[in-house]
Amino acid sequence: MSFPYIIDNTAGQTVATITPATNTGATFPITMYGYGWSPWSPVLLQNDYQLMENFASATPPTNPVPGMWNFSTTTKEMYFNDSVTWQQVVTASNSISAGFNMDVAAINIDFTQTGSTVIFTYPNDGKKYHPVSIMLIPTTTPTNTLPPTFNLNVHDLDDVMENVSIINPNVNSHTIFPIEGTTRFLYTAGDQLKLNITTPANNTLNMQVLIFGLIN
After folding, report:
1. Same domain, 39 and 115
2. Rounded to an integer, what distance in angstroms lies between the CA atom of residue 88 and that of residue 79?
3. Owning domain of residue 84
4. 164: closest CA among 106, 111, 128?
5. How far apart, in whole angstroms, are the C-alpha atoms of residue 70 and residue 34?
6. d(CA 93, CA 123)
């Protein structure tokens, strides 16, 4: 057995040199210790438990290493560290597409009125939002007999969905429309996704609007 302990990462790069009777302190999220350091037994058990729970906490661990896992007790989601930031891991809710955080205006849109409603605003988080599909959920019992039509756009002349008709909505069901063709993603401050009702329904039709897409 040689001293000090030389700790290498998977790529073969030395990340720590631990001399006897010392430890890494706060350099890493867990404590690594050298030969003869005490008390080693409870620290070993503590390290094992933190690894087992993926460092579950409301805030991610300090001094993370690339590839490290973290379970957020706030969002109940898994994250990994990419050496720059914590990235959310693919889950059942975002494995194909992730739900956008919709504006309050999208909770209850009256489809009996023509007009434009901002349903999503770019949150200035450094990511790009690619709309992929739209889900419509009736919030009241529909009574219309004439289906409305609508489209989506980011800028007035940049439609991402053209003339979609909502036919026979049911309060116990929802409708999903794929956004076909070339779509514009949202990635700069001030970008907004708008829903434009071009032909209104002729009677009661209030819908909640949800947008799904790729976020990177």
Report:
1. no
2. 4
3. 5-88
4. 111
5. 26
6. 20
49 vs 45: CA distance, rounded Å: 6
Residue 93 placed within a domain: no
The structure tokens 């209850």 sit at 108
Same domain flag for 81 and 104: no
The whole-angstrom separation of Cα 62 and Cα 83 is 12
Quickly tell me which residue has 């794929």 as its tokens: 178
Q: Are 101 and 174 in contact (CB under 8 A)?
A: no
Q: Based on the domain organization, do 102 and 144 belong to the same domain?
A: yes
Which amino acid makes up residue 123? Answer: P
pLDDT tens digits, 119-177: 999 999 888 888 989 999 998 888 888 889 999 998 877 788 888 888 777 767 788 88
Pairing of strands 149-153, 129-138: unpaired
- Please give the pLDDT value at position 53: 94
Q: Is 111 exposed, middle or buried (0-12, 13-18, 19+ CB in 10 A)?
A: buried
CA gyration radius for the chain? 26
What does the pLDDT look like over 171-200, one tens digit per residue?
A: 677 888 888 766 788 999 989 999 999 999
Helix (H) / strand (E) element for 159: namely: strand 159-165
Asked if 78 and 102 sit in the same domain, the reply is no
Count of helices and strands (H, E) across the chain:
1, 14
pLDDT in tens, 31-64: 999 999 988 899 999 999 999 999 999 999 999 9
